[in-house]
Specification:
By secondary structure, the chain is of the alpha/beta class. The chain has eleven helices and twelve strands. The strands form two sheets. Strands 2, 3, 4, 6, 7, 8, 9, 10, 11 and 12 form a ten-stranded mixed beta sheet that branches. The chain has a two-stranded parallel sheet with strand order 1-5.
Length: 323
């Protein structure tokens, strides 16, 4: 092929590619208000997207599998109180099949392991505080958002820092760029940064939303990564110079910590959270395989029902149906 022809082909190829990309952007920009009952999935390092609005009327699952003798559920430690409350009320609606959260010993293993357990078939439902990764979506998992939640930044009750932080300052603390409380208007003492375990879905959501997918700074001298996905032990270890984060429902009634306002807004302000003024928000999900059992679908439908959403709000989360 002559050089002139090669140049023509190259230009045409570039124009076609640009047209496809632009058309794709236009298409997806038009879908913001459209309900799409599809699996929520993101690449491993991407930011959390707005999940599709899935209700009992558009929950599309194949329920051809037989019901299990026990409805096994595992996953997020941030959702322990919520799942237990849903299980308790669901048992009154469907008393024939008991359910268990945290298989096999009653201790939930975190979002990451819960999704792995769902994929390998050892549980029927996974509770997760983060969206799917690409490989999990390819494994045929369907996520259904059942609540909205905020992630709170906390310090020990005796920490002399009484101010608020910006989202950018929080990012810099966890990136190791801000290392002393004096850099954010506090006392001249190092910041002990306590990060959640690698199995934590809250950790991944925090990394996506606050760090924008960047890596934490574990090499900093005062950076601690917790080995297990737990909250109470972290709160007790904050002391007078530590900082950490957790789902707001786990910390808002704790007397040993103080919640820090971010960009001047507290995550306990429900109206501000609903209005999108608090900057560290996420959705909480129930996940099932697309081919599942009738009782698994019934449990999700119950979580989405009026009764289920009343439980969501009673426990300090925001209803997925709230406007």
């Amino acid at each position: 092929m002559s050089q002139g022809k090669e140049t023509t082909v190259l230009v045409l190829s570039m124009l076609v590619t640009a047209g496809i990309a632009g058309g794709g952007y236009w298409f997806f920009s038009q879908q913001k208000s459209t309900v799409v009952p599809a699996t929520t999935a993101t690449p491993d390092s991407s930011a959390q997207p707005t999940p599709p609005v899935i209700t009992s009327t558009n929950l599309n699952l194949d329920t051809s599998l037989p019901n299990p003798s026990i409805l096994g559920i595992d996953g997020s430690t941030a959702m322990v109180a919520l799942i237990k409350a849903l299980r308790n009320d669901f048992s009154q609606v469907n008393p024939n099949i008991p359910s268990a959260y945290g298989v096999p010993d009653g201790n939930p293993t975190g979002s990451n392991q819960g999704l792995k357990n769902l994929i390998d078939g050892s549980i029927a439902i996974a509770a997760t505080s983060r969206p799917l990764k690409a490989a999990e979506a390819q494994a045929g998992i369907q996520l259904v958002p059942i609540a909205k939640d905020s992630i709170a930044l906390v310090v020990g009750i005796n920490n002399p820092f009484k101010g608020n932080l910006t989202k950018d300052q929080v990012r810099d603390i966890y990136l190791g760029k801000i290392t002393n409380w004096s850099q954010v208007g506090g006392a001249n003492q190092p910041i002990r940064v306590i990060n959640r375990a690698t199995t934590s879905g809250t950790r991944e959501a925090f990394q996506d939303i606050v760090l924008l997918g960047q890596s934490f700074a574990p090499d900093s001298p005062n950076f601690i990564t917790w080995k297990q996905d737990e909250t109470t032990a972290i709160l007790r270890d904050l002391g007078d110079n530590g900082i950490s984060y957790a789902t707001v429902s786990q910390v808002e009634k704790q007397e040993i910590v103080r919640i820090i306002a971010i960009d001047g807004v507290l995550p306990t302000d429900t109206n501000a959270v609903k209005a999108g003024k608090y900057p560290i928000n996420r959705s909480l999900f129930l996940g099932v395989k697309k081919t599942t059992s009738p009782v698994s679908k019934q449990f999700i439908e119950f979580a989405l029902s009026t009764q289920g959403q009343q439980i969501v709000q009673r426990l300090g989360f925001v209803s997925i149906q709230s406007n």
